[in-house]
Amino acid sequence: MSTFKQESIFTNYFYKFGSLVLFIIVWQLACSIKLAPETFVASPLVIVKTFLKWAGNGFLVKHSLISLTRAFYGFILAVAVGVPLGFMLGGWFKNFESLISPLLRFLGQFNPFALFSVFMLLFGLGEFSKVAMIFWVSLWPILYNASLGVKSVEPLHIKLARSMGLTRISILWRIVIPSSAAFLFSGLRQASATAFFMLIPAEMLGASRGLGWMIINAQINYQIPQLYTGTALIVGFGLLIDTLFKFLEAKVVTWRQDTGL
Known about the structure:
Layout: H1 2-32, H2 44-57, H3 59-92, H4 94-107, H5 116-123, H6 127-151, H7 155-163, H8 168-179, H9 181-204, H10 211-220, H11 224-252
Helix pairs in contact: 2-11, 3-4, 3-6, 3-9, 5-6, 6-9, 7-8, 9-10, 9-11, 10-11
């Protein structure tokens, strides 16, 4: 039984990380035999060495904390605005929904990259413009998923709750929020990924600190190891944040089952 369990664990990890490990091995081999020239491609070992150097001199912590702080503020603002607004648009306030939905659909179609110059013109090149960009792109997945979550609640459950004398607030906390939790977490995961995605180009324009600035600075100065290390850091942070939200979702949305599809 113990051997079977060990084999099961090994198989599980193989399917999860096997392709990634194989990719890194092939990448390293290609760099070692000069199939991928070092003037254009940094090997995984070089990336690890650069990462350890940055970690040792404080360069990594300094710029990572700056980027994560910007992403955090923009994301939290998007949650604070998007979740309540999404619940209001989910059917609880019909007149408000009819009034504001066309405007939100219009605003949601704006390409965030096209708004770069607008945000900089309105808010300057400081921290506020970067946080505002992250807030803008994070808002829409949270808003739409919160609205869909409320609309997905079984109407019969609402009717039963009302027949039992539950107030509107009690129905919200006991039925609507738990029923829409899966949609909420889906929106939060999408928004967190989008926030980090937008953070990098935001820092490439008018910034002197952060992961985005590190990458554009390495590109300008043709520092290939630093360029690849910065990119790898962004990917790593993105995977870490996504894993964190998956973990929280599994703890909160306990009724959701894996269909295996």
